[in-house]
Design goal:
The chain is mainly alpha-helical. The chain contains 12 helices and 8 strands. Among the domains are: 55 residues; 201 residues, MetI-like fold, CATH 1.10.3720.10. Strands 1-2-3-8 form a 4-stranded antiparallel beta sheet. Helix 8 packs across helix 10 and helix 9 packs antiparallel against helix 10.
């Protein structure tokens, strides 16, 4: 009797093992592991091959060059840098410049793209046609030509002595955009920290109001409370530090300006080119998202006298964002990668500085590997942040 039970348990074990081995999930796992191992072995082979060839030609390898003195200057930096700093520091300057122009481009492209996208579905015939013309023009001109065009436009602006004055707040010239800026004060750091804290508080307050509405059905208008939470703490910090109000206004002096802050022509041209190019695609993404909302739901919301902003906020946007966010992520990633064409107008981004490092050290493989890895990390982080936001705005079915 015991032998029979053991035999049956053995058959069941063998059958379960056979089921696992022939299951689709197990085969999928095996294929993925085999592919990963194959890619790793191929990469190792290529790396060893490159190292051997470089060693045979007496070319230095490794990343030790990052600690060597760069011996070249960079015209535009966000962190302290001189020719006595290392190549690693120079690449960090390029990275900071790339992140800055990419962030500015994303902000400008988003604002313009959403505005044009909404205009595309407007009932105003003229506004709709202007939006269509804008989209067709910026989407069908290569981004590199747009960057070169804006670079040429800015360089052909008047010199500082004949600069275009911007209502007493700044100047527009072939030196770039010069504008007034609050004078440096210790309060600004604390005001920025208070602004971040206020934004966090506003998000928490909106979440609590949403939970209250779902539980009781009572709506709480959070517009003005959120405005107070965001701008109230910085205003209190500003008052606490004695309300510093000194403004540094730019003034003409010789062949340049003194005071204020100046954005270089290269930065403006690159940012304008990549932002306008991407805004055309973002506009079409927004238009598609809005038109994907079932018309019947919008009419139903209007039939119960729901205010237009509530229709857009609670009916249209929650459904449109499901369509908008995934392709919008791709546009953000593409915009960051398009910033690498800065070399055509001389803006010192990561690729431009990386090329200089590569030419001086002769270590092309390592320099290109660093640039590739940095862009890969930036793209992955951008995708992760947008995917996180996509999960936040997703409509959860119950």
């Amino acid at each position: 009797m015991i032998d029979t039970n053991q035999d049956r348990s053995g058959k069941r074990s063998a059958r379960s093992l056979t089921d696992i081995l022939y299951s689709e999930s197990f085969r999928t796992l095996i294929y993925q592991v085999a592919l990963a191992v194959g890619v790793a072995l191929l990469g190792l082979y290529l790396y060893q091959n490159v190292i051997e060839n470089l060693s045979r030609q007496n070319i230095a390898t490794g990343f030790g060059f990052l600690d060597q003195v760069s011996q070249f200057e960079i015209g535009e930096t966000l962190i302290n840098y001189s020719s006595r700093d290392t190549y690693g520091r120079a690449l960090m300057v390029g990275l900071m410049n790339t992140l800055t122009v990419s962030a500015a481009g994303i902000a400008v492209a988003t604002v313009i793209g959403f505005s044009i996208g909404i205009a595309r579905v407007s009932n105003n015939w003229l506004l709709q046609r202007i939006a269509i013309a804008y989209v067709e023009i910026v989407r069908n001109i290569p981004v590199i030509l747009q960057v070169i065009f804006w670079g040429a436009v800015i360089r052909n602006l008047p010199a500082p002595r004949q600069a275009v004055e911007l209502w007493g707040l700044g100047f527009l010239s072939n030196r770039g955009l010069t504008f007034a800026l609050p004078a440096t004060d210790p309060a600004h750091v604390w005001m920025f920290a208070a602004l971040i804290a206020g934004i966090v508080l506003a998000i928490v307050a909106c979440h609590m109001a949403k939970r209250h509405r779902e539980a009781t059905g009572r709506y709480i208008d959070m517009l003005w409370p959120c405005v107070a939470l965001v701008f109230g703490p910085p205003a209190m910090v500003w008052l606490g530090f004695g309300a510093p109000h000194d403004i540094s206004f730019p003034e003409r002096q010789g062949f340049n300006f003194v005071g204020g802050a100046t954005i270089s022509p290269e930065f403006v041209a690159l940012m304008a080119g990549i932002a306008l190019y991407s805004s055309g695609f973002i506009a079409e993404i927004v238009r598609a998202g809005i038109q994907a909302t079932p018309r019947g739901q919008i009419e139903a919301a209007r039939s119960i006298a729901l205010r237009p902003r509530f229709v857009m906020r609670y009916v249209v946007l929650p459904q449109a964002l499901r369509v908008i966010v995934p392709p919008l992520t791709s546009q953000y990633v593409s915009l960051v990668k398009n910033s690498s064409i800065a070399v055509v107008i001389g803006y010192p981004d990561l690729v431009n500085i990386g090329n200089t490092v590569m030419n001086q050290t002769g270590q092309a493989v390592e320099a290109i590997a660093v640039m590739m890895m940095v862009y890969l990390i930036i793209s992955i982080v951008t995708s992760l942040l947008m995917n996180f936001y996509n999960r936040l705005v997703a409509i959860k079915e119950r």
